[in-house]
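User: For my dataset I need records formatted as: sequence, then structure tokens, nothing else. Please produce one.
Assistant:
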Amino acid sequence: MSKAYKTSEPSLPEQATTEISKGSWPSQEKEQTVRGLLASLAEPEPSEALIDLAYIAGAFGVKGWVRISPFSADADALHEVQEWFIAPPQGAHARGVPWLTSHLHVRVEQLKPQSDGLIAKFEGVDDRDVAHALRGATIALPRSAFPALPEGEFYWVDLIGLEVRNRQGIRLGQVEKLFSNGPQSVLVVQGEVQGKPKEHLIPFVGVYVDTVDLSDRQITVDWQPDY
């Protein structure tokens, strides 16, 4: 049976731009209410680095729920943690979001699967206008908040940057990122063969992955340099 492995991309995918809902912004008379609520949830960015797990794609319904699009399988951690950090949208995603200018600390009242993502209800967010003002924002957690995994399972974020060698001790490169092809995760390993750049796409399953040593930051695989 293949091993199960679980990461998080560090930034909002480019394609997310077109996925964010295009509803109207809060009416002028409600602007102060929106600003006041967001200010009440604001707090300084935590000292521990945050791992981006998903983004808010827009409002859902009229009672303050939001639609959430995960970045990767690491977003599974959101199901086990009731307090999240929400970061302001960056770059192009910040356009038209004047009220969200600092990190928010929110408590999750409810979280449910919906289509290919999630929907969530935050404590104190009971209005569609406020939920809509959060669109494009990033949902993140400190690594220390991630739930422990069973032995033999890993969060992708812990695998990025690890050195990859084969059974013969030949260095294949370093894990740049991972992606899912549906049934399994795939390591994207950047290395060199005879002085030329070489990318290895190694399925992250027991057939190919022998060991993962996080303390030594190394993965051993059954893979050849010319694969």
